[in-house]
Prior knowledge:
Elements: H1 2-10, H2 14-40, H3 44-50, H4 54-76, H5 83-112, H6 118-123, H7 127-151, H8 156-187, H9 193-198, H10 202-219, H11 233-262, H12 268-274, H13 278-298
Amino acid sequence: xxxxxxxxxxxxxxxxxxxxxxxxxxxxxxxxxxxxxxxxxxxxxxxxxxxxxxxxxxxxxxxxxxxxxxxxxxxxxxxxxxxxxxxxxxxxxxxxxxxxxxxxxxxxxxxxxxxxxxxxxxxxxxxxxxxxxxxxxxxxxxxxxxxxxxxxxxxxxxxxxxxxxxxxxxxxxxxxxxxxxxxxxxxxxxxxxxxxxxxxxxxxxxxxxxxxxxxxxxxxxxxxxxxxxxxxxxxxxxxxxxxxxxxxxxxxxxxxxxxxxxxxxxxxxxxxxxxxxxxxxxxxxxxxxxxxxxxxxxxx
Length: 300
């Protein structure tokens, strides 16, 4: 109670600012729903309520969650000195979030999931593709949020930092997908990962989604190690990229080790890749994210 009184005395307009942030956040989430329908060329109401398209619902849920994550980066930062500045700041971050989420999907579709038509697969109700789509956009949002908190300002340099972080995030997520595809190929006699996803292997998608989101979580720890220099563009980019590579390498060492210990005497390849065991895949999903959260806490 004493802390609340101190906060009110220090910033008496705090409740108005909170109300502004909340209203803008809700409006942006509504905008994301309808923008997703426009981008996909469908009616969100028809897909969700008439066709009962679970895949579209999962993909849209990922978009809404991702936008909410990005918005928390703006809300958590320093409040604007005026109501107008707060409205402008939140609106800009929200619109930027909408645009980056769309661009992220385009890049992920073109480079990470180049072997399938994602929009067509989701329209046809392919839940496996939708799960990976949602996980990729959530991972991207986690990294963008970390950069927002790292830069903690609203100017051209912040914009450059956000765009640079976005490009790094997409590059690393594509790299993770390629590595996972290679691992799948070796364990399944040359079979293609994306063909399995097209075939609707939900368990495989859940496992991969866990690793994508884990990558997003671990990369957020970079903000604790790298010092933000507004005009040091190259140093900032290299710092995030090198840190990202190191964290992915660490994940590739620790996650399989923890899985072998926690899920001992279980053939994960047989259960997930061949028998499509969603329960085991869910455990792998949780283990990947748990390892990333522990790493993130250790480095905070």
